Amino acid sequence: QVQLAESGGGLVQSGGSLRLSCAASRNFFRRYIMGWYRQAPGKQREWVAGITSSGSTNYVDSVKGRFTISRDNSNDAVYLEMNNLNPEDTAHYYCNAAVSFGGAGIISWGQGTQVTVSS
Asked: DSSP 3-state assignment of 49?
């Protein structure tokens, strides 16, 4: 069973930056669109960004120009560079595989990583 491990979250001030990482337990990523999702307290999980195996990317409007998703297929890793963070970005962040941009994750969710942005 594939397992996902997210890391890199933390507490930052508004305007700060973080880089999230996601690794899979075995060779799995390269067949799927990889995505980052987030869930804020009291809200549903939302898709944030996605990247195809060939490197095409897409983002939710609220993070365009601030977040950058990338992947390393040889190491089964996907990253999310987050710049100019604001308090509305505070959430628990998860990665997952999907068959389309914005699609539901297709494997069991990992523990995620918490991002907290203070004003």
From this structure: strand
